[in-house]
Amino acid sequence: MKKLFLYSVLAWGLALSSCGKDDAEPQNLQEPQADGSVTVSVTLPDDAFGNDSRALPQAYAGHKLRCILIVQENGTVTDRQEKLVDEAQDGSFFFTINPEGEDFKCSFWADYVAEDASATDGRYPDLYYNTESLPAVSYKATGNELFNNDACDAFSLSLLNGATAGTMTRPLAKVSFADERPETVASAGNVSVSNYNVYNGFDIVNGTVSDTPVSISYSGPAADADNGVWFYNYLFVGNKNSLPGNLTMKVGENTHDVSTENITLTANRKINATLNWERANGIITVDVSFDDPDTPNVGDYYYSDGTWSTSLNAEKTVIGVVFATSETEAAADSPENYDGVTFEDGKIHAWVMGWRDLHPTPRFVNASAEQGASGSTVESIEGVGQGEDDIYGFANCNAWIGNVLTSPKVYVALPNVMDSYAGNYNASVPEGKTSGWYIPAIGQLAALRNAYIAEDSKVKAALQGLVDAGYGSGDANAKVLLVEKNDAGANQYYWSSTAYEGSSSNSVMRMTFVNEDGVAVTNQNGGSSGSPCRPILTF
């Protein structure tokens, strides 16, 4: 099925978004201070601020994140405090409470309010959710505000009695309705949604959803016409994981009911409901898929211990950045392409680019192994992939090595990647979990190029995050961002491991990350020129 979520979902992530990540912080017990006060803290998911950084909390334009604490003693709310994101420290909110005894219970709700909201008696005006009756939360709006709006994201947590710290999760599912044919959405103009009944209420203490539905409605442009998304919402999930009934869609002069029977809601998940409007005849049924929270995403950091995360974990060693996953370009890859490698779960999860280029800029072949030797050319290309669709970089590299050069010629880029990159650049790979470093095939470089030059590129942003965090700061030769032009202003072309069979000689394909009209994206070189090289690995 076509991946539906290519559009940017700025704040959506996962409460525990990295596979292998530590579990949520323990719900600590804390001794009261001498005056009887207790400090309570709650941590938000890594990406809850919308910029994948806990150091610089931000929100959607026109909004600020608000966190509410309620304290219950003997089942009665005895304290309520609210803070805005400005008061957060490293992704956590801290509250001071004065409970009567030790058997108090702290619960939290975090949502978005207007950026210019001011407090009255310590409370900020609700925007999308009604919090007047906490621990019960309900929708405040029922119209367009609840559609196609990531500021409807929210988080909650209820601690054990006496506990004073924990991490919030989403009590919501993000449900999107999309079309099998994006061009249908692109040409449709506006869409209207009516008779859409959803359960209107969530108890942040016991996790139950209200039995009372409310009808929400929408009229306006599609959420993401280019990628075929009609509309999406954030819906409460607790003890109910289905919708109360069907909904009605109108596009142009045509109106159809859409069945929600196949939709199973799961908290903290993105649920993708796909339909075909053009073939609609009577009630439309949907195909449903969901995004697995344990899978990597493009732009995630990949660490030396084999884990990954959307936000940079300063306590771990980054060795690369995910640029393609099993849901994007890496879907065409399979474990059979990696002779001698055993992958976790027996499947390909992602392609990862190394965190920096090789230095010095290597030739593919040298005339000899002597210091200062001149460049030379490749010879046999037996077994090496050809063509711009080639994605078999790992196999290519091994095939090149099998094509022994005439003595005293030697390969340069290949051993510098496969044998030395991990040790030279603090990029050791987790044992038994990856292919190890290799030179990407031209098709893999194309996937990297597409991810790197994309508008609001997550890959480029992740690499910039490494620069900002000091990666490569002690080495003037470290190139973390991909090099587009050299010091003389000439376009730079990166080595691939894909061969090119010419009429009179063989060569190696290269690709540039320059994104300008008239620039040839690929070219070929016999192997004698120095070219940048960015290793990749598969896991």
UniProtKB/TrEMBL annotation:
PROSITE patterns: PROKAR_LIPOPROTEIN. It comes from the Bacteria. This is Fimbrillin family protein.
